[in-house]
Amino acid sequence: MAPRRQQTVVMYPSFGVGHIIPMTELARVLLRRGLDVTMVLIERPFWSSDSGAATTRRVMAANPAITFHVLPPDPSPPDFAGSTKLPFFHTLQLLRRYNGELGRFLRSFPRRRLHSVVTGMFSTYAAEVAAELGVPAYTFFASGAGFLAVVAQLPALLAGRQEGLNVLGDAPLEFLGVPPIPASHMVKELLEHPEEDMCNAMVDVLKRIADTDGVLVNTFESLESRAVQALRDPRCVPGKAMPPIYCIGPVVGDGSAHREMPPERRHEHECLLAWLDAQPERSVVYLCFGSRGTLPAEQLREIAIGLERSGHRFLWVVRTPAGTDGPKKFLEQRPEPDLAALLPAGFLERTGGRGLVVTSWAPQVAVLRHRSTGAFVTHCGWNSVLEAVAAGVPMLCWPLYSEQMLNKVLMTDLDMGVAWEMEGYAAGRVGADEVEAKVRLVMDSEEGRELRARVAARGEEAVAALEDGGTSQVALARFLAVAEKLQGQLGD
Ligand code: UDP
After folding, report:
1. What does the pLDDT average to over 341-355?
2. Complex ipTM
3. What DSSP line would sit under 375-415, residue for residue?
4. Which of 110, 187, 307, 390 has the fewest beta carbons closer than 10 A?
């Protein structure tokens, strides 16, 4: 049943480019289904850094069919820099405080026009507001079903623990639906003592996912069938049913480059794509560490030496190294990198014909979908993973933050089988030897060909999931139908 025009889905993404980008892609899907979409944003710290703000503005400008509404600034914003607590903790508190503003905004719609509220995975406080107004609320989970399965089972794991998970080191944690996860690979904030403010706040916000009317997961069933099955197993959340799970992905961009390019860098990015056009098929290794990832100068030099020795073509996104360590580095404003100072002397000249270094940002989806791209060195952010899977590009994992180490376990496990890992990351340094060896392995060897064939098959599955009658299309239609029915009931 096609939804009626004039019905609006209000989207309320979690902070950060990695949440806003896929939420925008979901909005585009819903617009094609005949719904109106309003995306509600909180200005800083949602957009965290200058580059985050610039990307968000670009996303807004490139999507005129979406109505963007920015809530008024908080009268007493947290002092991120001066606080001893993590910025993430303050952000969660701030999101909670914003419920009042969000409620005022939602009340400005005639009740019948509100189809549903779709919150980001860290914006689930909004479900309280939606419930007060009698509007169905859904979570858009911008990571995979494997991480969601872990999140769902986490409260039971932490209940009654006297110590943080960090004391367990690499001991494997057993969860339904995913391979054993070394405790050290959990999201860092969740490794603290369960009663610590940060851990508490994060568990609380994630627990609220189960209070929404359903979870839209950015994955497709065949990519993570065990995890999806676990999420539907009553043992996953003992005593409380998980809401319906809708695997609607991959919700990723289509690579229409004009949407991804900052206007001031359009020429540069067009040159980049023209350079890719001139390379042989599947010959280029692409290296990029998400919207926020940075590496120390010493590590950049190791990568450069490894890439040069491998003899392979490459496209490498380089950022200025962070000035501080720890999570506050995400708040830093950094200048564009000085490549001549950061990379080994003569590197750019020697590799000029076969390598391209770009600063800060590349039109990633277009790069991954380009026929010349042969492999992807990634920080394992879930959007990057899905974009590569959809494009059939094998990956080398180099996790940096968030749930990326956990993603790495899933990606390298035979069930998913789309990547190998750069082992040195665990000790904080991947040597030039490993960069060279892994690049050669993925590009030159028989095992590399097998890996590529596996990922290509996954890519075909992704296409099939999104076609008429495919699992993700069916799940999306079911979500829309159920939400409309609920909306009718709740609104009465
Ligand atoms: N991205 C991009 N160009 C870049 C870096 C990132 O287009 O140079 C996009 C990427 O395609 C993805 C998003 O930014 O859609 C990053 O999300 P991800 O979940 O991979 O990582 P995060 O930035 O959240 O750590």
Report:
1. 96
2. 1.00
3. EEEE---HHHHHHHHHHT--EEE---STTHHHHHHHHHSTT
4. 110
